Amino acid sequence: MAKEKKEKAAAEAHGGGAVAEKKKGRGAEAAGAEPGGAEAAPKAPKPKKAKPEAGTADDAGRKKKRGRPMRGLAKKQKANVGKRPEKPVSVEEAVKLLHEMGKGRKFDQSVNIVMHLGIDPKHADQMIRGAISLPKGIGKSRKVIAFAEGEDADKAKAAGAVEVGVDDLINKINGGWTDFDVAVAHSRLMGKVGKLGKVLGPAGKMPSPKNGTVTNDVGLAVKEFSAGKAEFRNDTGGNVHGVVGRISFSVGDLKDNIEAFIENIRRLKPPTAKGHYIKRICVSATMSPSIDLVVAQ
Asked: Pick the residue with more confidence: 232 or 79?
């Protein structure tokens, strides 16, 4: 009996050793070694594929990058940039250059002016806003409506207003009609017209005494704005933009308009503005680079 127990224990011990040996062999294989004890050779890394050079035949099948390359300047634009003077010039010389740059275009370009002012737009007392009737006009008529009644309504119609009225005109605009450029109102009617602030305000058409569209002389205001009275106001960067005519204007007419615009802005200098008031002046046509003007303080 004792002999049988000893034989059974020896068999179990022999079987357990074989199982341990098998597990050891599996662990060696997982670690990259051969079951017999010798270490397996490390696997060589896969060679990276070389990217084909751009413009070659191999590159033709590759997926193109998203977006477009930036388009260069057209021939006329390059020629005009080459004509641009490096230093500021007089008004007359700038207008002559604009005429030269504007040749060959199929439409009558607008001439614009930008003045960079030494103001702080965050302060309400340094805001620059208004309207000006240029001596030679801007070459474009504008649709003007008038909020007036009685004799003032007759004067507004005679001056060229496309629509004149009070309550009926207010209801028409509240209904969605905004086919006009400028709205002029008599000062005593602003209590009623003020209700249109949410409609006309975002469009920049709300009458305001600051730009001359709220006045007691409605007929004169309609006449001036219909002829092209130019409105202006500074942006957040302290710049004032304005239209001063068309490229078809003569040199003398454009010169008179530009000088009148500059002089008007000069007179509006806020008392609280410090340092140089007019820092830079540029003029340009619709399809031309800007030209710096000599600034006289």
From this structure: 232
Indicate if 141-227 has the same CATH topology as 72-139+228-297. Answer: no
* pLDDT tens per residue, range 84-123: 888 899 999 999 999 888 877 788 889 999 999 999 888 8
In whole angstroms, give the CA distance from residue 218 to residue 153: 8
3-state secondary structure 13-74: HHHHHHHHHHHHHHHHHHCCECCCCCECCCCCCCCCCCCCCCCCCHHHHCCCCCCCCCCCCC
Q: Does domain 72-139+228-297 have CATH number 3.15.10.40?
A: no
| Gyration radius of the chain's alpha carbons | 40
Under 8 Å between Cβ of 285 and 245: no
Count of alpha carbons within 13 Å of 138, Cβ hemisphere only? 24
Residue that is written with structure tokens 């022999």 in the block: 14
Residue 83 main-chain phi, psi, to 5 deg: -85, -15
Across the range 171-181, mean pLDDT stands at: 91
Q: Could you tell me the residue ranges of all domains in the chain?
A: 72-139+228-297, 141-227
Residue 12, amino acid: E
Distance (Å, whole) CA 186 – CA 156: 10
* Tokens encoding 226: 């219909």
Topology (CATH) of 141-227: Rossmann fold (3.40.50)
Instruction: Output the pLDDT for position 147.
Output: 95
The whole-number pLDDT of residue 33 equals 47
Higher pLDDT, 104 or 163: 163
Q: What is the 3-state secondary structure (H, E, C) of 158-210?
A: HHCCCEEECHHHHHHHHCCCCCCCEEEEEHHHHHHHHHHHHHHCCCCCCCCHH
Report the SS3 class of residue 91.
helix
**Cβ neighbours for 271, distance < 8 A, ≥ 6 positions apart:** 125
pLDDT digits (tens, 9 = 90+) for 3-45: 555 566 555 555 555 444 544 455 545 444 444 455 556 666 7
